Amino acid sequence: MASSIDLAGRTALVTGGAQGLGEGMARALAAAGATVVIADLRDDQGAAVAAEIGGHFVHLDVTNELSWKSAVDAAVQTGGLDIVVNNAGIEISSLIINIEPEDIRRMLEVNVLGTVLGIKHAFRAMGPEGPAGKGGVVINVASVAATIAFPAIGGYSATKSAVDRITRVAAMESGKLGLGVRVNCIYPGLVPTEMGAGLANDMAELGLFPTPGDAVAGVVELTPSGRLGTVEDMADAVVFLASDQAKFINGVGLPVDGGMGM
């Protein structure tokens, strides 16, 4: 689908772009005219999506510093770097009384460290001394989980709350350092992707809802818009924040949750 926003001439790197929300964001950015670099651990899947949208694929482990440097260098070589979407993330459900330290460490590594490294290397590439050097936009993907108290996602909620705080500090640092990079984040609501379906299944398995369908119905009941979000809803928000239409929007968290987190 063609976009009413024009991102022609810009290069975007999307982490976790091989499937789910990241894939939708990559497709929407490409539809708006951007050259898209999909960065993911899923090589075959990511390369296939990149080929479909006329973009590029690069292998990326977001928890690894050298992997980030290689991915950003590859993106810059395609024609620059203007947009970085830190979308890659994982969710491991658990009641706090049963939480496993390793699960928390893994979510911290992917969701928090992965986002911090993404901002770091975006700043280094996009700032006036970097190889791209024209400034740009970083969009971090937090979650409605950062704004609500929903059972069994305590660790995930904590990491996504951290993404929100990091976003705001990064925006301030970019301004103070004169980097010319806007930094914002979005709070997606529940979307029926593989991760969203997994969360609903987890809620039922933990005995919090009779069935996964009841878990979904519980989320919808908490949402003023009366439905789940779609991949397109989240992708549209990313395209907007990446565009000049959002040129004076900086350091904010944009809820894309149908009102669930109000």
Record the SSE blueprint.
Layout: E1 11-15, H1 20-31, E2 35-40, H2 43-52, E3 56-59, H3 65-77, E4 83-86, H4 101-126, E5 136-141, H5 154-177, E6 181-188, H6 194-205, H7 212-221, H8 231-242, E7 253-256
Parallel strand pairs: 1-2, 1-4, 2-3, 4-5, 5-6, 6-7
Helix pairs in contact: 1-8, 3-4, 4-5, 6-7
| Strand content bin | 5-15%
- Fold-level CATH name of the largest domain: Rossmann fold
Count of discrete alpha- or pi-helical segments spanning 4 or more residues? 8
Instruction: Write the element-wise H/E pattern from the N-terminal end onward.
Output: EHEHEHEHEHEHHHE
Corresponding CATH superfamily of the largest domain: NAD(P)-binding Rossmann-like Domain
Q: The biggest beta sheet, please?
A: 7 strands, parallel
Uncertain residue segments = none
User: Structural class of the helices, strands and pairings?
Assistant: alpha/beta
The residue-averaged pLDDT reads 96
Strand order in space, largest sheet: 3-2-1-4-5-6-7
Per CATH, the class of the largest domain reads: Alpha Beta
- The beta-strand count equals 7
Helix % is 40-55%
Number of domains: 2
CATH architecture of the largest domain: 3-Layer(aba) Sandwich
Could you explain how this protein is built, in words?
There is one protein chain. By secondary structure, this protein is an alpha/beta fold. Helix content is about 45%, strand content about 15%. The protein has two domains: about 10-190 and about 230-255, NAD(P)-binding Rossmann-like Domain (Rossmann fold, 3-Layer(aba) Sandwich), CATH 3.40.50; about 190-230, no CATH class. It is built from eight helices and seven strands, in the order βαβαβαβαβαβαααβ.
